[in-house]
């Protein structure tokens, strides 16, 4: 009967599903450094990758006669039969071959038949596999080492942070010692009794290696002194920090390519992403360490979110992100899912549309604060019957007449861009934004609303980074993406990706003019001089929304485009201790600068091309010219003599003509210093403390009541303004 059973017991062609499951591995852009693994933590390696001292460490621990025995142990089988009859715990076969038969080919059902099948398979394995080394290879890739590590390669990484081919003899001996009782024989178990037993088991393995002449006397003596140092239990979680946002986005992109998560895991795919490890670290450091008082973990409790997205302008590869404080703390992704009002960061799209329509950079547009417009974009007094702004628009800089589009971009002049939008057409601006990658669900509802020019629409950081990249690279839109390669465990290409979108979005001359205009805000006197880099040119734009609820800085050098946002989900004014009300030129610009200073280290310095001066300059507003009779006249307002804050107002000094302001940034509190200009409002509309000091400034009209509290309505009415909420659309990009 036994002979018949032996003859009729085949060796399966493949191992059981659980024994062969592996992990999918996600890599940074270098294709070598791991971001993390999902699935069963097993990496299969050929026996040739396992050093001889590691092989013999396992043999010394588990089966010292492995290379000479027949593959099964009579005493081991006898013990197993007895415990099955007596109802005790299932006993494993004592040889490596029997353990392989049990773990690789059979399930865990405790039956007498299973033990005999184990015996018969172990007897046939060498003939089936061809050699002892092949048996050992399967064994080493199957066995469990604790800490959720299956196989010798995964265990090497988990315990020592290295590949198996880099293990030293003592490290191999410790891993071999762990096999018998994983978890218990972990040097970091914290249980003193278990640690003593681990040390004894380790010395037992060393003794076997020494007796088999795999350790010299000197090595044996040295290794017996202490156990090799292992990594702490746990370590960084696969989805901790920014890794979770990165891996989840990669899985989303793979799914859109027809590679679902189940396939990724079951096939143990190797996914090389576009994320640059150093730039990811720089993004985290910039967001969390640059500005005192800006702690994303604490701010999240106040429903304040921060996001950063950085793309390669030459191909759309996403090099770095900051999706939130940590995926495990808050899984909501502020880069792809989160959106907030764009504010003035939409103005470059307005300019691009105007240039495409044939207008030139030197066109003269409305620079006076408080002005309104009729439906054709002609200037009217704010609040006039035909004023579509319903009360006029405030500017943070007050001009007395027409200004060029270059100056308007530098000073982020609202009246100028509202007029430009009405002259160009809101529908053309929406089309331009969509052409540059902004999703229609973000801008599609504003085709007949001039407020699109002032960023009343929501937008996502990834769209901003990719959209501005078009200006940087000369007119080509690349769909932002995070996957570079999908391969199999043996290095072959699993599937060639076909999702990349590349299209000509703008003519190069238009991008040259937009870039020229966008270099002005980071210069002295602009809205974001703090974003400037010392070693290379920068182009960019701030964005600050009504009541400072959402703030942006989006900018680029020729090779990288980066968007930074900070916004409040509850539509409350952003206030940071020590800074006050946040504007785009403060926190976002400083974070952008800190990140880009690191991201561009070692990168070639490239210059932007000169402006092409496309289009024809228009003259929609006259330039202010002072009348001769007014020269030298005391133009100070009458309240200068009795206002305690008058000393800070330029209109109260030097006859009222000292308003310039130079290149200094606005002061963020009513207590100015030499490094800021107290006469520039730190936000638009200005905060109440600024309006108290600058009593009578037209930029403060209605501010005492507060915009949204009795002041003039936001462009196209408050009802048309989208809520500042980080809400995911039905299918985010």
Main sheet record = 5 strands, antiparallel
Radius of gyration: 34 Å
Total number of strands: 21
Overall shape: it is: elongated
Topology:
Blueprint (H helix, E strand, L loop, with lengths): L1 H6 L9 H4 L2 E5 L6 E6 L12 H11 L11 H13 L9 H10 L6 H18 L2 H11 L9 H9 L8 H10 L13 H20 L5 H7 L19 H14 L4 H6 L3 E4 L3 H13 L6 H6 L2 E9 L5 E5 L17 E2 L5 H11 L6 E3 L5 E2 L5 E2 L21 E3 H7 L2 H11 L1 H10 L4 H4 L14 E2 L1 H13 L2 E3 L4 E5 L14 E3 L3 H11 L20 E6 L5 E7 L3 E9 L6 E2 L3 E2 L5 H13 L65 E2 L9 E2 L10 H6 L40
Helix pairs in contact: 3-9, 3-10, 4-6, 5-6, 5-7, 9-10, 14-23, 16-18, 16-19, 16-22, 21-22
Write structural notes for this entry.
The protein has 733 residues and is of the alpha+beta class. Among the domains are: 41-223, Penicillin binding protein transpeptidase fold (Orthogonal Bundle); 633-708, no CATH class. Helix content is 33%, strand content 11%. It has 24 helices and 21 strands. The strands form 8 sheets. The protein has a 5-stranded antiparallel β-sheet with strand order 5-4-17-16-15. α5 crosses α6. The longest helix has 20 residues, at 192-211. The chain is elongated. Residues 35-209 form the Glycosyl transferase family domain.
């Amino acid at each position: 009967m036994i002979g018949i059973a032996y003859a009729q017991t085949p060796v399966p062609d493949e191992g059981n599903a659980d024994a062969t499951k592996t992990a999918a591995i996600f890599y940074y852009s270098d294709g070598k450094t791991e971001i993390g693994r999902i699935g069963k933590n097993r990496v299969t390696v050929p026996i040739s990758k396992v050093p001889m001292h590691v092989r013999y460490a396992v043999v010394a621990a588990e089966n010292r006669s492995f290379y000479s025995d027949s593959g099964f142990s009579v005493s081991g089988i006898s013990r197993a039969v007895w415990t099955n009859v007596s109802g005790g715990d299932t006993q494993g076969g004592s040889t490596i071959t029997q353990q392989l038969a049990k773990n690789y080919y059979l399930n865990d059902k405790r039956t007498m038949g299973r033990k005999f099948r184990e015996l018969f398979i172990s007897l046939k394995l060498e003939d089936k596999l061809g050699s002892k080394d092949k048996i050992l290879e399967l064994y080493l890739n199957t066995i469990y080492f604790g800490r959720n590590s299956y196989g010798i390669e995964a265990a090497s990484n988990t315990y020592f942070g290295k590949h198996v081919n880099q293990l030293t003899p003592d490290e191999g001996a410790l891993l071999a010692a762990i096999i018998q009782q994983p978890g218990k024989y972990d040097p970091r178990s914290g249980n003193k009794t278990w640690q003593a037993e681990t040390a004894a088991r380790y010395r037992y393995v060393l003794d076997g290696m020494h007796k088999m002449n795999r350790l010299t006397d000197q090595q044996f003596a040295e290794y017996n002194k202490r156990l090799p140092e292992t990594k702490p239990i746990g370590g960084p979680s696969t989805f901790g920090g920014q890794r979770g946002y990165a891996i989840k986005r990669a899985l989303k992109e793979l799914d859109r390519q027809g590679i679902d998560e189940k396939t990724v895991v079951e096939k143990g795919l190797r996914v090389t992403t576009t994320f640059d490890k150093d730039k990811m670290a720089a993004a985290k450091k910039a967001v969390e360490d640059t500005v005192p008082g800006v702690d994303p973990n604490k701010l999240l409790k106040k429903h304040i979110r921060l996001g950063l997205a950085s793309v390669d302008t030459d191909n759309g590869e996403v090099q770095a992100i900051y999706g939130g404080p940590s995926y495990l703390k808050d899984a909501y992704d502020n880069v792809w899912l989160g959106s907030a009002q764009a504010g003035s960061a939409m103005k470059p799209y307005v300019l691009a549309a105007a240039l495409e329509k044939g207008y030139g950079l030197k066109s003269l547009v409305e620079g006076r604060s408080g002005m309104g417009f009729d439906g054709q974009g002609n200037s009217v007094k704010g609040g006039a019957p035909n004023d579509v702004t319903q009360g006029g628009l405030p500017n943070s800089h007050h001009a007395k007449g027409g200004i060029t589009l270059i100056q308007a971009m530098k000073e982020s002049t609202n009246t100028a861009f509202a007029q430009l939008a009405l002259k160009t057409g809101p529908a053309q601006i929406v089309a331009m934004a969509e052409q540059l990658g902004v999703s229609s669900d973000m801008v599609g509802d504003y085709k007949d609303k001039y407020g699109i020019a002032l960023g009343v629409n929501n937008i996502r950081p990834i769209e901003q980074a990719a959209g501005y990249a078009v200006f940087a690279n000369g007119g080509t839109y690349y769909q932002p993406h995070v996957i570079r390669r999908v391969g199999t465990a043996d290095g072959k290409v699993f599937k060639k990706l076909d999702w990349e979108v590349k299209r000509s979005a703008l003519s190069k001359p238009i991008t040259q003019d937009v870039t020229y205009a966008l270099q002005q805000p980071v210069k002295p006197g602009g809205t974001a001089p703090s974003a400037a880099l010392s070693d290379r040119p920068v182009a960019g734009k701030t964005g600050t929304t009504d009541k400072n609820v959402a703030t942006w800085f989006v900018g680029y050098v020729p090779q990288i485009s980066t968007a930074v946002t900070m916004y409040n989900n509850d539509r409350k004014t952003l206030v940071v201790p020590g800074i006050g009300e946040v504007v785009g030129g403060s926190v976002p610009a400083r974070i952008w600068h800190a990140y880009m200073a690191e991201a561009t280290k070692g990168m070639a310095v490239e210059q932007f091309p000169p402006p092409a001066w496309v289009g024809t300059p228009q003259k929609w507003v006259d330039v202010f010219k002072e009348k001769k009779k007014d020269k030298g006249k005391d133009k100070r307002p009458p309240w200068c003599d009795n206002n305690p804050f008058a000393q800070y107002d330029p209109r109260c000094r030097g006859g009222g003509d000292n308003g310039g302001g130079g290149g200094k940034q606005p002061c963020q509190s009513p207590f100015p210093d030499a490094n800021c200009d107290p006469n520039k409002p730190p936000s638009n509309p200005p905060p109440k403390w600024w309006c108290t000091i600058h009593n009578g400034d037209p930029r403060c009209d209605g501010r005492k009541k507060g915009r949204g509290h009795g002041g003039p309505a936001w462009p196209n009415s408050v009802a048309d303004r989208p809520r500042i909420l980080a809400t995911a659309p039905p299918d985010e990009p």
